[in-house]
Write a structure and sequence with these properties.
Helices cover 37% and strands 16% of the residues. By secondary structure, the protein is α/β, with parallel strands linked by helices. The protein folds into three domains: 2-67, no CATH class; 132-381, Aspartate Aminotransferase, domain 2 (3-Layer(aba) Sandwich); 384-491, Alpha-Beta Complex (Aspartate Aminotransferase, domain 1). The strands form six sheets. Strands 6-12-11-10-9-7-8 form a seven-stranded mixed β-sheet, with helices on both faces. The protein has a four-stranded antiparallel β-sheet with strand order 15-16-19-18, with helices on one face. The structure holds pyridoxal-5'-phosphate.
Amino acid sequence: MRGLDFFRGLAAVLLALWLLPAQASHGVYEGTVGKQAIVLTLGNQNAVYQGTYAYQRYRTPIRLKPTFSYSNKVLAMDELDEQGLPVARLQFNDLMNSRQQEQVRGRPLVFLDSAASAQKPRAVIEAMAHAMEHQYANVHRGLHWMSERTTEAFEACRDAAARFLNAGSRDEIVLTRNSTEGINLVAHSYGRGVMRPGQAVVISEMEHHSNIVPWQMLRDAHGIELRVAKVTDAGELDMDAFAALLADGKVGLVAITHMSNVLGSYTPAERIVRLAHEAGAKVLFDGSQAAVHRKVDVQALDADFYVFTGHKLYGPTGIGVLYGKAALLERMPPFLGGGDMISTVSFERSEWARVPHKFEAGTPPILEGIGLKAAIEWVERIGFPAMEAHERALTDHALARLSAIEGVTVIGRAQDRGGVVSFTLDRAHAHDVATLLDRQGIAVRAGHHCAEPLMRRFGLDSTARASFGVYTTKAEIDALAEALTRVRTFFA
Ligand SMILES: Cc1ncc(COP(=O)(O)O)c(C=O)c1O
């Protein structure tokens, strides 16, 4: 009888394997189970379908549910649906979905705040919900089946992040809570553990507070000098001034944004690395914005550290990535102490786990890691060439439309820029502009954007900022321009 069970179970699995790729869409697949629980994983380069069933009685039906309910077709950004919306947008949550779109004050939401946090594709939502429904336990230490499966699902995020950044090895990926934690980790561990008092850190005038404050704390605790590279009136890094800061050979680390969250400007990453390395300094890039808009290859760039944050890359909050070259991570002491980051503990002393686990104390963001993996795969299905082209077209359109409105000044005119446009309106405070735009269903951000020193550099205390994602349309930018024209008449 046991032999018969086994063959019936095997037949069910083979049936499911045959059904799944043929019907890669919504659905529940029926079959007959044997006595063992089995995870089916079918992979191809675009998507992975995963079906699970729990132990059930002989002859009861099993339910196999694909993790993602999409075809595995590569998404084309220039493909529009009958309403003229990018097809990719229809794969997002209801906030972005034209057919059930959330109404804001009686109008469809125009969401132009992706640089603060992006909306989520259903692939991310479903991957996290699936994990909570079917595949949840604590990771790493468990010897039971569910813990092992959840560990695999969580650790797959490290593989996805390594591929996304083209890291040399998955061990060079530290999973953090966000970019801020990644930068603090380097400031604390590399800064205090490897750098010597008297050395300097170079940042720039266009940093987010996340890439300023940790270095001030290092300066005050460890006798490190903090040097600030200038930004030109066009909003680009002043490369002559930057090179001059490196000239005395005292700089141990350059910590610099790869793309400004206020000006949209990219920094010339390859030149920065070359000049820094020639001067004997390591380089950390804050890729919180850049990694969302442009393919990053840390090996080609020869970056020493690179951070990004999941929630801006269409993933969940509470998860970020720190890439560090293996040789540097090996030299660095742990940042936080606790469970999961040790190999042995006694009251006299503790020994650390190997890299990267040495830097991941405590229960990690399990569901968030599973969500970030889904987000990375989703972005890879569109591909950066298509995303960049879409965002460049939107940015050019936005610059043209906003500049044509009397009284509107766009801040920053960098040649190389991504989908972020900051602006001011004569006689109006940015908060009032944002509030009046909100009354018309348009979500923009207003304030100092966590970049107070940059605001001062441009003689401002705040700007309004529109930022774009893969789901943004030209029509939404037109809606912003028209709404802003109405706001202007209010203050005229
Ligand atoms: C350039 C830049 N750096 C760092 C951050 C901080 O990101 P998080 O709050 O996710 O750590 C942001 C977020 O706005 C950012 O735009």
